Amino acid sequence: MRSAWAPLAVVCAVALLRALTASAPQAAPAADEALRREGFRAVASEETSMRREAAKTFPTDPWSRDDDFHQREMKKARDWAHTNHTRFADALSAIDEGLRASWPHGNPAPLLATTPPCRPRAIY
Amino acid sequence: MSPARHLLSLVRGSYRAVRYVASHTPLRLGIFAGLALIAAWPLLSTANSLNEFRDAHVLGHYEAVARDTVLHWGQAPLWDPYYCGGMYLLGTPQARFVSPTFLLTLVFGETRAEALTAFAMILAGLEGTYRYARSRRATRFGAMAAAPLFALSGIFATSPALGWFSFFGFQLLPWMALGTRRALAGERMGLVTTAVAAAWCVGFGGTYAAPIAALWCAFEVGEHVVRHARTDRAGVAAVTLGLGVAAATAALGAGLAAVRLWPIADTLQAAPRIIGGAPGNDWGTLARMFLWPIRPETDNGEFFIGVLGLPAVLLGLLRRRRSIPLAVAGVACVWLAAGYAVRPSLFASLRELPLYTTLRYPERFLVPLALACATLAAQGVSLAEAYVRTPRARQRRRRERAGKALLLVASVGLAANLGPLAAQHALHARDRSLSSPPGAIDDSRPFHQARGNRWALAYYEPMQRGSLSCWEAYPVPESPLLRGDRQSEEWLVEPGAGTVTERSWSPNRIELDVALSRPATVAVNQNWHAGWRASAGTIENDRGLLTVALPAGTHALSLRFAPRSATGGALASLVALLALGVVVRQARRSPKVRGAREGLVLALLALSPLVPVVATAALVHEAAYVQAPLTPDGRPVVADDIDEGAVRIDAKFADGVSLEAATLSNPDPAAGAETSLELDWRRDGRVAPGLGVFVHIEPSTGGTNINGDHVLLSSVLDLEDAPSNKTLRDVLPIFLPDDARGKTWKVWVGLWRVRRGGERVHLEDAGHALSDGDRVLVATFVAR
To answer: Relative to the CA of B775, which of B8, B99, B598, B636 has its CA 20 to 30 Å away?
Structure first.
């Protein structure tokens, strides 16, 4: 009766094989430091304006406002990475490096290195 | 042979083949695996891709960090330093790694394991539904034909696209229901089935699946009691035995899940999840969610079971004696799914129960409705089969013909329904935004907290960066002192007192060399938690930041994360596992519990996990999370009286709450800038539960109102948890848009029953303010 289990074994093997052979979308090339600095500047230079837009969306909720800013920042970084044919991870890394090393950013106000504590909205 | 006869012969042959397959477990599982493969194929084909949906980033992150903590760092996955400034990973309700599917993650990596988990869980759900339908007297053919109605339903198609793999915990619902039925009949293996499935569900992050499954199990208990509600000796014995074994099942299930339940309880005690609002769905919306196919940007098809299965479901309803309990359960599910849109609201009543206060989305009760429908459909097919096989002597031929027609309609409908069901999975999977997954952890980089970005969280851990940007369903305790630009993650609060050097770093353990000329405090750029232990000095909580007070001298300081709830919970789970092993062994000798002696042994086994829980709680001391609530500007929320200069209002609302004062930080605020409004509340001892504050800031002409409705005072304190007869500062930042300039703005404030139906709380006395329909005018200003 062992052969009765064969269909199950075959299907499970097909599932495993498909998962193991699935290829990832093509990854973009890595960015060098000059490009990362450029990326940092491109994203960070708009921080104040992005935070202002976020404040309009959430005028009375600091956490939601900051969260909205991060969504805008993510989109900006993704667009920049796409335009410059480089990895999105490098754009995010550049923001971290730039903040930590105080790279020039061109934003009219100092960049924030803190975030408000997580306060998920009780009401949607 | 005519084409009609040929077709009839084909149908008859197919019927016989399916009946044969259904009655042979390996073949049945092979067919179910084939269905699971079809449904999960789009996920399997993209298994090495990162789902860019925001929730997928966070929920996948927990799984990835748990894997890396085990494989890369060689530690138990207890603490996650990579998110929110550090959080209790084992105590995070939505994490799914305390389940057997974590083995797939360990072996194949997080992204590939997601697809394989979906495949395995769908297979488990199909077999579970089959067995559950069988336990309700459905035929093998009927149970097999109807199982996909639940296990391939819309929730399992939509969840992977959103990264909500923990919703596959619902696939264990039929197993829990089946086990409960068997346990109620006194069967030991029923107890084991439910306990294992429940613990799996909890460990899998079943924040909805586990509480909803518990309700279904309670329904099974209720049905058992009603069915045996006789006063004779046999009836009383059946109820007593059933309830006894069910209680033992619940105790052992909780014991087995203790490794997750205790840490989660710890987390939610420190940071309760507050859910407001009165969500509801009208009948049309529910029908579209349940029966209509998916349509982007709508709720349609979220819980899709398809219309082609309905004839079988309706037929099942004709089997009155067997269908009534399921019909009752189904109606209750629909009633719950309607939420606050119907009065009286069963969902509102449910939210009064402690475990259920945190449920936000009533429509998720359509998942158990799918199980009810699948079981009814199985019974419908069974009824038709019974008509064909055992027609009564009278009207024999007519009944047989009717039976055949019904069987054909019901079973062909269910078979044809497989197409739309599978299509939902493909459609949802196709809509995902996928990208190349981030690589392995970059060992060359030391760990640092970064400002981060929770919308792209998956990229941070491989970079050895933590993301302070944080979202969770509960308010993760996060220190305002955390920074994302530090050169060193550990420092001395008194800089001139000496030096601190990081010797080694890992998620659960940090080794530091500290040299101090005088007593000083070492600060770590992570959140404090009661589970942190230090080899020297005293762990302290500095506004939520992890710090260690040390005496003068040289210290090889070792900080390790070993919370009591993880140790105690793991021990309790281990004892429960051993107890279940004993139950399995007993079940081989005697499948059913019989007699008082066996009942006593089972009770002792069920209570055994309590021993390590009590022992750990008694032996391991751990500080409670106590954080005085602060306003956004750093003042205590609770004060003896209002500040000097505050504008008195003295309005009194029903339910024992008064608004003492309301003050704008800047009475002459500028457009395009931020100001803040402080509301000073006071409550007496009888405050009603579930209140919220509404703040409507209305312009004199045109433009949009600014809405400042909220539940927690100063975003941190629930009114019902606040001390009575104290001033409660509720500070609300307000950003005035550019187009606010020149307009006169009126600030209206009141209270509403945000978690109790949404009505406004009656204003008894407006005090010094103007009033308008249970709200008071607390300020008027012109924006510069």
So the answer is: B636
